[in-house]
Amino acid sequence: MSASVLDHAALPSRWRRLCALLAVRPRMSAEALILLACLYFTLFANAEFWRSAAPQPWQQGRWTLSLFLLVTAVHGVWLSLLVWRRTARIVLSLLVLTAAMAGHYMSAYGIYIDADMVRNVLHTDWREASDLVGADFLLPLLAAVPALLVIWRVRVRERRWTRTLSARALFLMAMVGVGVLGILPSTQQLTAFLRNQREVRYLVTPANVLVSLAKVVSEEPPGHKRALRSIGEDAVQSPAATMRRPRLLVLVVGETARAANWGLNGYARQTTPALAKRDVLNFPHVAACGSSTEVSLPCMFSPWGRERYDEKEIRSHQSLLHVLQRAGVATLWRDNQSGCKGVCDGLPVEDLHARSDAGLCNGKRCHDGILLAGLADAARRQKGDQVIVLHMLGNHGPTYSERYPPDFGVYTPVCTTSDLERCTRAEITNAYDNALRYTDHVLASAIDQLTGLEGYDTALLYVSDHGESLGEKGLYLHGMPYSIAPREQLEVPMVAWFSAGWRQSTHLDDRCLRRQATAEHTHDDLFHTVLGLADVKTTLYRPDHDIFLTCRSAR
C-alpha cells in the first residue's frame, strides 16, 4: 500500500470526507455554471442593493421575489454574452473578485458605481489607488475564495458550436422569461421604484460595473486618442491689453474642499486663518459641476458647463486654456494630482507630484507647497499676459491626515487609516479640517508671492473641483451620481484676490465686488470670468456668466 493511501487513511473521518469532497470535479454545461454564478451574485454579492431596495425582505415577500428574479435575469443576460467555455473560469473569477471589491467600497463609503465612478477608477494613478487599499481590503477577497474554488473545480462540458449556440439562445430566452416573471407580480411597485429610486440600479453588482464599463469604452474606445476638436477659433485679446502692464492670473483648482468646513464661510472652526488676514473676496455660495474630479474638471473649463452639460462634447473638445493660448495668453498647468483630465492636452505642463523636495515630498506624494516652488521663475519665463493653473492635491481622501505637514495638525485626534469605518466622525473631521488649514496656508503663501512679483499685475482665483461627504447619512468621500449627490459633495469654496495694480488698471469697484461675492455662483461662471479677466474676446464668451464684468464697468 502506498504512503499516500496510508496517510489518507490515517486522517480523521471528517477530514477524509473533506478531502473526498474537494476531489470531486463535477461536469456541467456553461449555461449551468452561468446560472450558478448568477445566483451567487444575487444572494451573496448585493448586500447594499438589498439593504436599499428591500430592507425587510421577509415582510415584503412578493417584492423580494420580484427583485430576486430581476437581478438574477439581468446577470444571466450579461453573463450569457460574456462567458464561454474556454474563458469561463477566467471571466467568472474576475467578476467574482470585481463584485467583492465593489461591494466592499459601496459598503465602506456609501458610494454608487456608475460610468463616472468607473471612469474615475480607470483614470486614477497608483498613488490614489494605494490610498484606498488597507487591511480591510483583504476581507472581501477572502470571502470570495469559496466561490473561486467552485469555479475552478467545475469542468465545463465540450459541445459542437451548433449545439453551443442553440443552447445559449435558449438560455437567453429563459433569462428574459425569468425577468418577465419578476416584473409581473409587482409591476406598479416596480414602476414607482424605478421612477423614485433610479439610483439604486447603481448598486446591482457586478452588473453596475459591466454596464458602466461598456458605456465608458463606447465613449472612449481603446487605441489612439483622437485630437481634441477646436473651440474659440475667433479668440483674440482686446487691443487695450497691449497698452497696460502684463497680467498674471494664478488659477488654483482645489481638490475635495467642501464649503461647509470653510472658515471664511462661517464654519465653527477657523480653518482659513491665513486667508482671513489677506484682502480676499470669499464666495460662500458656489455649486460644483460634478461630484468628482473626472466630471468637474473638464466641465468647469468648458463653455458647456452644467447648465448645458454634454459629457461627449466636453471630453471631445478643447478647453478654456486652449482658447487663452490661441488668443495669445500664455498658459501653464502645474500639477500635484493625477493629471488634468484632458483640460491641458497639448499645452505646457509641469508634473510636480513625483518630485523629491525635502520637507515637501516623501517619495510617494508631495504636499501642495510644491506648487509654489519655482512659481515666480515659471512666470518670468513668459512675456505678456499669462494664466498659471495650480492643480492641488488638497483634501483628497480617505487619508486626509497625509495631506498636510505635522505642524498643521491643530485638531486632534485624527483618523490615520483609509478604513474610515474604524474612525469616529470627530477623528475624520479633525484630519479633514487640518488639511483645509494647510490649503489656506498654501493659498496665502501664493498671494504673498504674487504681491512681491515685479513687472506684473497679479490676481489669484481659487475654487475647489467638488466637495466631500464625511459620514453624513452614512456617506463618505465623493463621486455620487449628480442627481442624488448630497450638498456636501456639490457645494465648494471659492476665493479671489487682486493686487493693487490689477484693481487700478481694471477700475474694479470694491463695493460691487463684495456684493457679487455674496451672490450664488457655479462652476459655469469660471470659463467666462477668466476670459473677462484676460481681456479675451470670442463668441463663446457669455457676459451674464462673467462674475466681475459689472464691477469692471462700474466706474
Fold blueprint:
Blueprint lengths: L2 H8 L2 H11 L3 E2 L1 H15 L2 H7 L7 H22 L5 H22 L5 H9 L2 H6 L6 H6 L1 H9 L1 E2 L4 H23 L3 H10 L10 H13 L16 E2 L9 E8 L26 E3 L2 E2 L5 H8 L10 H6 L3 H8 L2 E6 L13 E3 L23 H6 L5 E6 L33 H27 L5 E8 L4 E2 L5 E2 L9 H4 L3 E5 L1 H7 L3 H8 L3 E2 L1 H10 L2 E2 L11 H4 L3
Spans with pLDDT under 50 lasting ≥5 residues? 1-6
Straight-line N-to-C gap: 105 Å
Biggest sheet strand order reads 5-13-10-4-9-7-8
| Helix content class | 40-55%
Structural class: alpha/beta
Query: Biggest β-sheet: count, sense, barrel?
Result: 7 strands, mixed
Account of the 3D structure:
By secondary structure, the protein is α/β, with parallel strands linked by helices. It is built from 23 helices and 15 strands. It has helices at 3-10, 13-23, 30-44, 47-53, 61-82, 88-109, 115-123, 126-131, 138-143, 145-153, 161-183, 187-196, 207-219, 293-300, 311-316, 320-327, 375-380, 425-451, 487-490, 500-506, 510-517, 524-533, 549-552, and strands spanning 27-28, 155-156, 236-237, 247-254, 281-283, 286-287, 330-335, 349-351, 386-391, 457-464, 469-470, 476-477, 494-498, 521-522, 536-537. The strands form five sheets. A seven-stranded mixed sheet has the order 5-13-10-4-9-7-8, sandwiched between helices. Strand 11 (469-470) and strand 12 (476-477) form a beta hairpin. The relative contact order is 0.13. Residues 1-6 have low confidence and may be disordered.
